[in-house]
Amino acid sequence: MARDRKFSTDELFQLTHQLLLTYGYEGFTFSILAEQLEVSRGTLYKYYENKDELITEFMLYEMSQFMLKLKDIHAQEGFEAQTEYLIDLIFKQTTIPELIEIGRHIPNTNEKVEKNKKQLDEQRMDMYYQLESYIQLGRREQRLKKNLPTSLILGLIFQTITIPNHFNVPRSEWIEGIKEIICHGMFLQN
Amino acid sequence: MARDRKFSTDELFQLTHQLLLTYGYEGFTFSILAEQLEVSRGTLYKYYENKDELITEFMLYEMSQFMLKLKDIHAQEGFEAQTEYLIDLIFKQTTIPELIEIGRHIPNTNEKVEKNKKQLDEQRMDMYYQLESYIQLGRREQRLKKNLPTSLILGLIFQTITIPNHFNVPRSEWIEGIKEIICHGMFLQN
DNA sequence: AGTAAAAGTGACACTTGTGTCATTTTGTCG
DNA sequence: CGACAAAATGACACAAGTGTCACTTTTACT
């Protein structure tokens, strides 16, 4: 009964993603977004009360997509294979840690935003739970050193994504190097 | 022949540091800074044309302080001791990587800023050079795995600082864990 | 005590982003 | 066709940061 929208949610989220990575949370504005979408700024307010609402909505979507893939980790046989799967997955979704970091800066500007942020936290806990059982497998298989805190292991794995590759080491060599160090360290055994 | 300043460069830089970490580059304003310094905003413009000039000036200072300490790495005997020294140093200066990251977002708003940014790049290269010789020592001592790219090793060591310690693992346990993983990995040997 | 040089002030004009809303456009359905 | 509901628009009032500058205040020095 009405006319079609000039943009899809997919387009919107994709652009949001790109602009967030380019300009960061503060630099991200409805002005830029509207211009890129070739739509007036006022239009965006028809769908979201403010940028925080849009961003949290987008992040929920992004997180759920990531969680779907993460759940498949349990299809892998054994701790070593799961580790390989996890690192490869993270390097396919390289922006997740950045988005999480951005998410920490979002203020509670209205109830919807607050609700979304709570939901994001729940997803983060769910993610942690998924990975907790992966770590437990490692401990059960006696493959993991006992004294290492779980949160350190997970944090370190996730953080490897953000190491800047200034010298453009080829991607495969880079990822292999990371796996090697995380699993067996940079030192040669004697 | 004139009156004293109401604030010292030290105070200014310390506050700049704190505000940058709290609000990030975009959120850092002369308004907030002036208020905290209990000085009018106009005063700040007497010393810096804009915030980019102040921030780059501050970063140059911070980098040079860090470089001084970094140079002492060569006083350590052997690769393992140097590795220990490096990681401990980084964890004493936890904000260096964050500052470097913030530095990447600064636009060239005037010639002074441009000059400062170039100088920062040189310092970064100098830092790299210092650490390159540390890595070379590791290779010469046959302690380092041959196939690992230098930039990956250095990047990974520096990045460990930014792993969020959500569960408040005690600091010493945290740092020991990081050293352990970087040097020998998270896997038990069989 | 007088003064000049530097420090500091605050008002002004400007820019950019925000949120709102009365109005216009568009396309589908009866 | 025509009407009506959703989509889109653009102008308005507001908020916050920026950079400037004529002016005032302070104080070390003569």
In terms of topology, how is this protein built?
The structure is a homodimer of 190-residue chains.
Chain A: H1 9-27, H2 30-37, H3 41-47, H4 51-71, H5 78-92, H6 96-103, H7 111-140, H8 150-159, H9 171-184
The structure holds a DNA duplex (30 and 30 nucleotides).
Written overview of the protein:
- Two copies of one chain form a homodimer.
- Chain A is mainly α and 190 residues long.
- The first copy, chain A, has two domains: 47 residues, Arc Repressor Mutant, subunit A (Orthogonal Bundle); 128 residues, Tetracycline Repressor, domain 2.
- Chain A is 69% helix and 0% strand.
- The first copy, chain A, contains nine helices and no strands.
- In chain A, helix 4 packs parallel to helix 7.
- The model of chain A has no long low-confidence stretch (mean pLDDT 93).
- The structure holds a DNA duplex (30 and 30 nucleotides).
Largest interface: A-B, 41 and 41 residues
The residue-averaged pLDDT of chain A reads: 93
Give the structural class of chain A: mainly alpha
Q: Separation of termini of chain A? A: 76 Å
Unreliable segments of 5+ consecutive residues of chain A: none
Sheet with the most strands of chain A? none
| Topology-level CATH name of the largest domain in chain A | Tetracycline Repressor, domain 2
Would you list the SSEs of chain A in sequence order as H and E? HHHHHHHHH
Give the count of helical stretches of chain A. 9
CATH architecture of the largest domain in chain A: Orthogonal Bundle
What's the alpha carbon Rg of chain A, rounded to whole Å?
20 Å
CATH class of the largest domain in chain A: Mainly Alpha
Number of strand segments of chain A: 0
| Quaternary structure type | homodimer
Whole-number total of structural domains of chain A = 2
Helix content of chain A: 55-70%
Relative strand content of chain A: under 5%
* Global geometry of chain A: elongated
